[in-house]
Each structure stands twice: as structure tokens, then as C-alpha cells.
Amino acid sequence: MDYGHDLVFGTFITPQNADPQVPVKLAQVTEEAGLDLVTYQDHPYQPGFLDTWTLLTWAAASTSRVTLSGNVLNLPLRQPAVLARSAASLDLLSGGRFAMGLGAGGFWDAIESMGGTRLTPGEAVDALAEGLEILRGIWAANERSVLRVPGNHHRVSGAKRGPEPAHDIPVWLGAYKPRMLRLIGAKADGWLPSYGYLKDGDLARGNATIDEAALEAGRDPSEVRRLLNLNGAIQPSRGGFLQGPPEQWVDELAALAIGDGIGTFIIASDDPDQIRLLGEEVAPAVRELVARERGTAGTAPASARRGARSISLRRTGIDYDALPAALAERAVEPGDRGYDAVRHNYLRSGSPGLVLRPRSPEEVAEALAYAQRQDVPLAVRSAGHGISGRSTNDGGIVLDLGAFSGIDVLDVATRRVRLGAGATWGHVAETLVPYGWAITSGDYGGVGVGGLATTAGIGLLGRLQGLTIDHVVAADVVTADGRFLRASATENPELFWGLRGAGGNLAVVTSLELEAGDVGDVVYSQMALDASDTTGLLEKWGDAVEAAPRELTSFLILGGPRRGQGPVAQLMTVFAGSDTEAAVAALEPLADAGPLLGHQAYVMPYSGVVQRVDARHAGGGDPAGRSGLVQHLDAAVSREVADLALSGESYFTQIRATGGAANDVPANATAYAHRSANFAISALSSSQDRLNAAWDAGPGRLTDGLYLSFDTDSRPERVRDAFPGETLARLRRLKREYDPGNVFAANFPIPPAD
Questions:
Q1: CA distances to 441, 467, 523, 576, 583 from 586, in Å
Q2: Average pLDDT of 11-31?
Q3: Taking a C-beta distance cutoff of 8 angstroms, is the pair 487, 496 a contact?
Q4: Is 516 helix (H, G, I), strand (E, B) or coil?
Q5: Is CATH 3.40.462.20 the classification given to domain 522-724?
Q6: For the whole model, what pTM was predicted?
Q7: Under CATH, which number does the domain 8-303 receive?
Q8: I need a surface site. Which of 32, 299, 667, 696 has the fewest CB within 10 A?
């Protein structure tokens, strides 16, 4: 039985402590030889061995590419909740290079001598199942509940989850007996026996038992990787099994892959020359021979037919079996353990049928080609923070750009930086602090670069720096038909115009180049004002902001009355400079807008305002949103905003200053055309219909345009609000050229010109 697994080759190294650096050097030899995996046996009661866990961490720090694993870790002497946190930590520190080889224990006299509890074979299986549940429960950091596993041998009662590993750590179980094999088929990721303990026919019988249990659990048997520990010697003359020249090894290992489904070969050797021969001569030849045999037999790669944890959860309209192998490796579908971490947005719940996570522009092009062959919606996500929630969906495909997270300084003299679309602005701010630079970028560090820098970017440095899109000087994109294009003032200039304001409609942006501003420390102010005279406060605050120096940018959040208390306005304000006297002078008029209830101000780098956030999105709330732009907060506008906030129809009402430098840019310079606006108003509600009615009858009558990221109204007229007049006509022509099939239709879809 060939399961189609890609072939992996590794070493099984003795963790001897006579010369403690030898096992580490052998790990380095394994990596240098081009092999994939380093494993160490785990016998904590053996005084002649290094502690395996300590050795794994040291070896991980001494290598850069190979995966590391215990072979197998002794669960009776390693408390599973602590082991889970240790494993997640090592996986994070090594960049996703840890695998969990786990055993139920076998040498019980030695285990008891170290304080472990002797178990019967049946109890050992139960204990291993409990340990596996605890491991995966701790790693599920995105789940909000505490972990409770009331086991008979291993238990946790209200343990906090986390940290989340860098990747989905596979759990391989060392096992031989039927009950343990059934546990592997139902719940584990791999079977890891040693060839020397197997009798004739045991591989076939074990595979059959695992396959049957996997199918009973609703899994594809190819989800379970088959690994094998092997002894042998590469030598000139032929002898017994794996005792001979490289060509004998090639034939015998290929037979195990094709006939018995072995996908991972782990060779026990402490001889560096044997390891080099394995990596340089044997492994490449085995891969070549197996690939040739599979081509003749028509064997599909396991990654191309990856089964969901429950096949019944797959969605109609998606051909999962046709998913290209390069994408399948990291794709996530309903039922996968990592699904909950990628299905939602910041505030929007989602249940996509498939999340694709490409790592290169070539994989983005492959993902787009695949998505267009499916009969489901497509959403593109940079970091998933957008309030409008259009980067997830129900039943469709999400193209997640989180792997495009690089941040590079290209030119110190011009302050030019390249940002991956999946990077977050908190990470960007943190990276630029040592240079004394900053780029205006919303008010929250978890916002993705790609979403903000293609929409507009109303941020807390905005009156000084303009919009985020005003700092974009080039973009690298993948078009719907798979072309790789660069857009700038001199390369594809019309596309460059459209990307700055309507980028989500035109292509997948993988990276952008921006010019940062020369901004050192800033003064960050937080005020609370009594908003009993709500209309008057809004007018005074608006006047004060417009009269302030451009270094000052302020956002206002208005909350309605609660529990007998009057309404309160919260101000977040940045003065872009460390001159505290100038900052106080600029802030005082804001404090005079209403009775001051509290004020705190700090001098800090911009990264302290827009802080790095690495939390996973869990959805929830699913708010309805409306937004609009105005030139001034005059009496009429202020009254309508106040009435909406106090009516209860909007539970969150915010006004962002967006004038100053943003007004200096001509309206036709970018696809974001609302250059006369000084303020952006947004409101959130639990009901789209009720909010639409209240907004349209209130502040919506006085606004001119809207801000895409905060509006969830899907009526066609919103597109005309976002892109007025000739801007929309120009975008429709661009749409016809770059996306005539309307592939990018999730975010305020622009119809291609006729």
C-alpha cells in the first residue's frame, strides 16, 4: 500500500553523554548531508545518556533546517501539560521544526525507579490517549475556554491554553499492539515502530488496523504518516537487509515505500560517514526511483488527497482532491486542528470551506487559478482586522497572505521600506523605531499592511503625514490571470493609481514599498470628557482639531449613557513630536471641549501607540457598520451624530480626524478621492437594517463619501459613495483590464466597464 507521502529521511542518534557535543555534531552532519530529520531516543533513567529534551533544544539551536523529535519521548516520566508547553516553546524558537514522537513506556522497572507509576498495557494505552488530548488541548491557544481533561492517569483541571506552536506539531506514536494502532488511526499523525521489533507481516497488519480505525473516525488513512526506525550499514559487499552498497539500500527502501507505505526512513547511526552517504547517495536515488514508480502507477500524492479530520465537513462547490500539492501542504479546511485559528476575522465570524496560505507569488498565482475553478466565493486576507469583515466568508475560499510578513529597509537615505502584505502595522512600527521613522497606520497594531495600504489608511499621524496610501511608492501584485506585475509611478502607473484606494478590487498585493516619515518620540494623550452636551462637545472638538498644528491628530469615541451615568467621550490623540510644551499647548483646546474627567499623556515611540499584536482572531460580535466623511463638524453634523449615538442604535460611534496633509493631495491622484474631508465618522450596530435606517435618516444625509473598511452595507449605491464620478468610471476601465471576470468581488465589487 503506497499512501503517496513525500519521502523524508532522518537519523536516530544515541544521546550518549561521554562526549556531550557528539550528538549535537551528528545533528549538524545530518543537516549538512541534506537529510530532513534528527531524532534521539528518550530513556530518562539511563545515566549514560543526556536528557533528551535538553539535547533537543541544544540541537535545535545548533541547526537551522532539520526537524527534531524524540524517538520516542517517555510519557510516563514527562508530565503531558508541561511537555505540551515545552514542545510549543521549542517549536516557536526553532521556527516550526519540532515533531512529537511519543511512547507509552516499556521498561517499567526503570520507570518505577525514577518515580513513575507502573501501568498495565491497557492502562498505558489509556494514559497515552489522555496525554494526547492534553497536548492538543494546550496547543489550541485560540480556544477561549480553559482546558479540562479528567483522566485517570493524566489530568488537568482548568489549565490555561497556550502557547500556540509555530506550526501544527505532528504527533507520532511508537506502537505495536492492536489497541495502540487503533488509537493512531483515530487520533495520531504518524506510526513510528522500529523494524527490529517487527515480525514478518507486521507492517501490513499494522497498516490495515490503522487504516480501518482512521476510516471509522472519518479520516483518510493517508493522513497518518508511516515512519520506520531502521538499522543497517552502507558497505561495499552485499549482506543481509540494509547491509550492502547504496544501490541495495535504494532498492530495499523503495520497496518499503511502494509496498508498505513507509514515508519516513529513520536510520540509526552514530557514524558521520554513514550519515553523509545516506544523504548524498541513498536518499536522492530513493526519491527518484519512487517518483518514477508512482508516475507509472498513477499514485496521487498524499498532500493532494489530504482528508479533513471529518470528511463530512467539507463544503460543496470545492474540489478538494484537485488542490495543488504545493498549496495542500499548508491549506486548512473544516475539521483540521488549525481551522479555528484561521476561520475568523477580528470581529467577523467565518466558516470558509478552505483557507489557502501561499508562501510565494507563484503559489498565489496557483491559488488564484485553483479558486477560479471552484464554485464558491473568494476572499483575500492580509491580517483580518478590517471591521467590514470581507476577508472571510461562509463556505468559500480564503487566500491568507500571513506568510508575506517580511519588513525590509531598502534605502536609509530615502527612508524607503518594503513591507509584506501580511505584516502587521505594530510590527512595522516596532521595526522602524531604531531609525526614528514612522508611517501613519490606523490606531491598532494588529491591522494588516495589505488591507490598510490599499484602502486609504486614516491613522494617528494622519494630519502630519496624510493617508497611508500617500506613502506607497510601489507595489508587487499577482493579477487574476496569474501575471506578476510591479506598479509604481513609472511602471503600470494606471494600476498604481487604482491600487491606492481600490486595491482589493484589482489584484492580490503581495508587498509594497513605502517612504517612512522622520518621526521620533511622540506624545500620546488619552482624555475622557463629560459629553452631556454632546452636540456642543463635538463642535468644539472639531473646531479645535482643525485649528491645531498638523502634528496633532485626534480620534474621538462616543459612548451613550450607561447605568445612570451620562455620556462620555474618549479621545485618543497623538502629537507627533517630543516637545512637551508644544504638545500641551496643542492639547489644551481639546480638553476645553467639555468637562474633563481624566487625562493621561506619555512621551513614547510611535510603536508604543500602535503596539505589536500577535493574537489570533476569534470572531464574535459580527457588527453592522456604516461610515461617512464630512468637511466640518458643524452644528448640523454634530447634532445628527449625537442623536445617533444617544439613540442606542449605534453602540460604538467614532470620529477620526483625517485632514491636514491628506487634504494636500489632489482628488484625482489616487483612487481614494475624498481629499476635502477633515473627519471620518463610523458607527457600529447589532442590526444592519436598523443601523441603515438610523444612519440614512441622520448623519448619512450630511456625509460625502465613505471609508471602505468600516462599512458593511452591501447596497450598490455604497460603491458610488466610495468612488465618486470619474473615479468610478476610471476604476471600471481598470477592472476590465486587470480583472474582467470579477474574481476580486468580495470588497465593494466594482463592475468592469462594458
A1: 22, 21, 11, 11, 5
A2: 97
A3: yes
A4: coil
A5: yes
A6: 0.79
A7: 3.20.20.30
A8: 696
